[in-house]
Design a protein that fits this description.
The chain is α/β, with parallel strands linked by helices. Helices cover 45% and strands 11% of the residues. Helix 2 crosses helix 3 and helix 4 runs antiparallel to helix 8.
């Protein structure tokens, strides 16, 4: 935790493969601007446990809710990077009394590219069973026991990290350790396989299109214009699901705008936070 505990709370939620340390260029600035800043390692990542549970955004949303209830003790603004943005959005929909507002930077979900305007037709039971069988088979056949250690201990990891940035980051040892250490832990393969299965088999209500339509809290989208992993067209698809959402585009960033252009990200975020309405007193009392 950084900042004065009496200041309004803000919870930072990292993205896939990262940890709370990925907010290395943001947390202190936000605390200095008058926020009480918390960070959390999602289950399966960072220093958190790596169990073979159904790791999807519903479980991580419950984790955030528990953290807010047990540690923060009042509604907070949730700021999520990539997967963390989806988790923050999920928490705001499923547990709205604990969330004052959400920032997703960016909001990744392949279903945004294929989603119709309304709720899709329900699939026949046999098609759902077939999809489940195929996903389970594919995830069991993938040689993750070989691939994950290979990536964690080879230059391939640096190339993977670089794909998330528009500017050169190879040689950034702090960033390398942040990603490599969790991937080298004994439970990394088990958690990744469980995560892959659970995310692929989420119900429609846990996908970004459905969550956006149900959201009752303010939401800001922040995107890097040069994001190759979750391109800007995904943001435009999100706006089709929820017209009128504010979208801030940082010109020279890739997939990690909070780290790649921390000054631009922090100033954009703080301007939006400044205009947020205060949390209702009834919610602060809960």
């Amino acid at each position: 935790m950084l900042g004065d505990p009496s200041h309004p709370p803000l919870l930072l939620v990292h993205g896939f493969g990262a940890a709370s340390g990925h907010w290395r260029r943001n947390a202190a600035v936000l605390a200095a601007a008058g926020w009480c800043v918390y960070g959390v390692d999602l289950i399966g990542f960072g220093a958190s446990s790596q169990p073979a549970l159904h790791l999807d955004n519903r479980l991580w949303a419950r984790q955030l809710r528990a953290f807010l209830a047990q540690v923060v003790g009042r509604p907070a603004v949730l700021v999520g990077h990539s997967l963390g943005g989806l988790v923050a959005l999920s928490c705001a929909v499923f547990f709205p009394r604990w969330v004052r507002a959400v920032v997703a930077a960016p909001l990744p979900d392949p279903t945004l590219l294929t989603a119709p305007r309304g709720r899709p037709a329900r699939r026949a039971p046999w098609r759902r069973r077939l999809k489940r069988w195929l996903v389970m088979l594919l995830c069991r056949l993938l040689p993750l026991e070989l691939l994950v250690p290979l990536l964690a201990h080879s230059p391939l990891l640096d190339l993977g990290i670089q794909s998330a940035y528009a500017t050169p980051v190879i040689g950034d040892q702090e960033l390398h350790r942040l990603i490599a250490r969790p991937a080298s832990r004994p439970g990394a393969v088990r958690a990744l396989r469980a995560m892959s299965i659970a995310m692929a088999l989420r119900p429609h209500g846990a996908t970004a299109p459905a969550l956006l339509r149900r959201l009752q809290r303010p939401l800001l989208l922040i995107w890097g214009r040069r994001d190759q992993l979750v391109p800007l067209r995904v943001a435009h698809q999100a706006l089709k699901q929820r017209p009128g959402l504010p979208l801030a585009v940082l010109e020279h960033c890739g997939h990690c705008p909070h780290d790649e252009d921390a000054e631009g990200f922090n100033s954009t975020l703080l301007r939006w936070l400044h205009d947020l309405p205060p949390a209702p007193l009834a919610e602060l009392a809960q």
